[in-house]
TrEMBL record:
NCBIfam families: PRK03739.1
Name the UniProt record assigns to this protein: 2-isopropylmalate synthase
Similarity remark: Belongs to the alpha-IPM synthase/homocitrate synthase family. LeuA type 2 subfamily.
A Pfam family per the record: IPMS_D2
EC number of the protein: 2.3.3.13
Catalytic activity: 3-methyl-2-oxobutanoate + acetyl-CoA + H2O = (2S)-2-isopropylmalate + CoA + H(+)
Length: 638
């Protein structure tokens, strides 16, 4: 069996310089940094098939829309298309006045000159020059010692300054300068400071303004890259704080971070780096970039947002962002990608679903009282804040529980099932999902619900179908019976206050127009009920008596069809509001042999929905009676 080589013979640990004076662990970040998107440069240079300029333009426009004010658009000396992209931005008038275009160049004279040609005429430009400063690069790549490396940076900063002065005057551009000691996190920090001091001194020594209007933006951007992430984020934060506290004229520097994700900690490194004193972050939207990518600016921005601080970038329509990124880079987004992945707001597992369902109920109650603070189990942000719907929040498979299933029934059908009915229906769903081994979609669940409870149209009909009914008070046989306040059925007796405006007199159970009966239901007045029902497809009239319509109907089922059932549990609620309000009624029926007190056994649940409360209750009885008949071969008396 192959074994990993002894790592101590292959790798040596990064040796951090002790920095006991660090203060960043006690800091908090309450404000967005300056953001720079390098999607079109660092992101683009990492693609097997770099973006076309058309794709880059689409991406650029979206970056502007999101709110980026600094966008690195290319490495103009790399290719004609990189060069031309800058020209296209200019000629197309694509750059808003408040947006700075950043371009990257190495510290090489010919390439710096080409870079200036590319941006000539743009209004606001950041020239970004880099050279690697770490020992490995000094020795292996450049064959330069420390002094020569400083000199390389100094000489080319001087050239950038001169060209910036010239182009500001000749082409009306305002320039700023960014210098990156590439491989900063692998560079001895005091040496990185030494190089940057030399660069700053050279830049600030320029004798003419680099702004077209003669003003001078004094501040220089020092961008500190974790070109390759080689240590833990706390070590990076120490390096950043050391840099920030050692560099002279700190007020003349904007400290920028540029973290890569080789160890998977780019976000953490950038966040701790900000605590350590950085002002600005370079990264990409959704984290494309060399190797494991650049730091993801969606995650950073939404992390801030979820702490209650404005991020300064608008990701409220995350789907359009995803579309742009995927279509321009050709790379997919991982379904678990923070804030953006298809599954990041989804719970499959039962206990998560239960907690989320309860959380939503509590959240709704809080919001009704004017408190909108999001406080939800398992969901760090409201999915709606990034433009997601709640549909994806709960999805059902064999790991799911009753709470999640009830949530879907409530979302899809507006039915708030009583707890024990949830348990009963959960078993149905669990069986089906275990049989298929697959996720049950919302449609699968609502179909299963309708089938189980014979609800919602003739395709779901059971052996009994209620067609119409009439009730009559036994003591007051005329239709001019006195009207009394409407209360729930006699088994429960709770008032249906939200349904008080329902027309409770319609004795009609389906959409067919048989509206011949208009009598008022009276609480605690003995009733006689006559109903027309289909029994195994044959129309029958049944009748019975009781203390109200439900008990009368059960009496009729017993007397005329030999179905003997009684109510063990009953509840109802309103569905909808205003003139569209309906009643949803839930009943659990039990046959005589079942102990009504042993609620773990023997019940048949039913549900009915109707604008008429009596019809809703009767439909629920029929639904439950059908459930009972589904499990029996009972011959119904004809
Ligand atoms: C960490 C980053 O992301 S840095 C940005 C990386 N991005 C890119 O490289 C994409 C664009 N680059 C390119 O298209 C090409 O490298 C070009 C067109 C710029 C240059 O191409 P070439 O002239 O063929 O040089 P090539 O890249 O092969 O070699 C690099 C040379 O530049 C030197 N060099 C590399 N980086 C720098 C730098 N930042 N400053 C100065 N010199 C540098 C190397 O030491 C090497 O010198 P040598 O030829 O004397 O050994
Ligand atoms: C050019 C620099 C900033 C870079 O991309 C890096 O070091 O990762
Ligand atoms: Mg990079």
């Amino acid at each position: 069996m192959p074994m990993l080589a002894d790592p101590s013979t292959r790798y040596s640990p990064f040796k951090p310089t002790p920095f006991p004076q660090r203060s960043w662990p006690d800091k908090e970040c309450k404000k967005a940094p300056i953001w720079l998107s390098t999607d079109l440069r660092d992101g683009n240079q990492s693609l097997a098939n770099p973006m076309t300029n058309q794709q880059k333009l689409r991406f650029f426009r979206h970056l502007v829309q999101i709110g980026f004010k600094e966008i690195e658009v290319s490495y103009p000396a790399a290719s004609d298309s990189d060069f031309n992209f800058c020209r296209e931005l200019l000629n197309g008038g694509e750059v808003p006045d408040d947006v700075w275009i950043q371009v990257l160049t190495p510290a090489r004279a010919d390439l710096i000159k080409r870079t200036f040609e590319a941006v000539a005429g743009l209004k606001h430009v950041i020239i970004h020059m880099y050279n690697a400063t770490s020992c490995l690069f000094r020795e292996v790549v450049f064959n330069n010692n420390r002094e020569e490396t400083v000199q390389l940076a100094e000489t080319h900063t001087k050239l950038v300054r001169e060209l910036a002065q010239q182009y500001a005057e000749s082409h009306g551009t305002n320039f700023r300068f960014e210098y990156s000691p590439e491989t900063f996190s692998q560079t001895e920090t005091e040496y990185a400071v030494e190089v940057c001091e030399a660069v700053k001194k050279t830049w600030l020594a320029g004798n003419k303004s680099v702004w077209a209007d003669g003003r001078n933006e004094e501040r220089i951007i020092f961008n500190l890259p974790a070109t390759v992430e080689i240590s833990t984020p706390n070590i990076f934060a120490d390096q950043v704080e050391r840099f920030c506290s050692t560099i002279s004229e700190r007020e003349k520097c904007i400290i920028s971070l540029h973290t890569h994700n080789d160890r998977g900690c780019a976000v953490a490194a950038a966040e701790l780096g900000v605590l350590a004193g950085a002002d600005r972050i370079e990264g990409t939207v959704l984290g494309n970039g060399e190797r494991t990518g650049n730091v993801d600016l969606v995650t950073l921005a939404m992390n801030l947002y979820s702490q209650g601080y404005p991020p300064g970038l608008d990701f409220s329509d995350i789907f359009s962002v995803i579309d742009t990124v995927v279509e321009c880079t050709g790379l997919p987004i991982h379904p678990r990608h923070p804030y953006a992945g298809e599954l990041v707001f989804t719970a499959f597992s039962g206990s998560h679903q239960d907690a989320i369902k309860k959380g939503f109920e509590a959240q709704t109650a809080r919001e009704k009282k004017g408190n909108n603070i999001w406080d939800m189990p398992y969901l760090p942000i409201d999915p709606a804040d990034v433009g997601c719907t709640y549909e994806a929040v709960i999805r059902v498979n064999s790991q799911s529980g009753k709470g999640g299933i009830a949530y879907i029934v409530k979302s899809a059908l507006a039915l708030d099932l009583p707890r024990r009915m949830q348990i009963s229906f959960y078993k149905v769903v669990q069986d089906r999902s275990e049989q298929t081994g697959k996720e049950m979609t919302s449609k699968d669940i609502t179909t299963a619900f309708r089938q189980s409870f014979h609800l919602g149209g003739s395709i779901y009909d059971g052996r009994l179908v209620l067609k119409s009914f009439m009730t009559r008070d036994i003591s007051t046989p005329t239709s001019s019976a006195p009207q009394t306040p409407i209360l729930g059925p006699e088994q429960d007796g709770r008032p249906l206050s939200r349904l008080a405006n329902l027309n409770l007199s319609s004795g009609h159970a389906d959409q067919s127009p048989d509206r011949s009966y208009h009598e008022k239901d009276l609480h605690n007045v003995p009733k006689r009920l006559t109903a027309k029902i289909l029994v195994d497809g044959k129309l029958r009239e049944i009748s019975g008596e009781g203390n109200g319509p439900l008990s009368s109907f059960l009496d009729a089922l017993h007397a005329d069809l030999g179905i003997s059932l009684s109510i063990r549990e009953y509840s109802e609620h309103a569905v909808g509001a205003g003139s569209d309000v309906k009643a949803a009624t839930y009943v659990e029926l039990i046959p005589p042999e079942v102990d009504p007190k042993d609620k773990t056994k023997g019940g048949f649940w039913g549900v009915g929905v109707d604008a008429d409360i009596t019809a809703s209750g009767l439909k629920a009885l029929v639904s439950a009676a059908n459930g009972y008949l589904d499990g029996t071969k009972l011959q119904l008396e004809h």
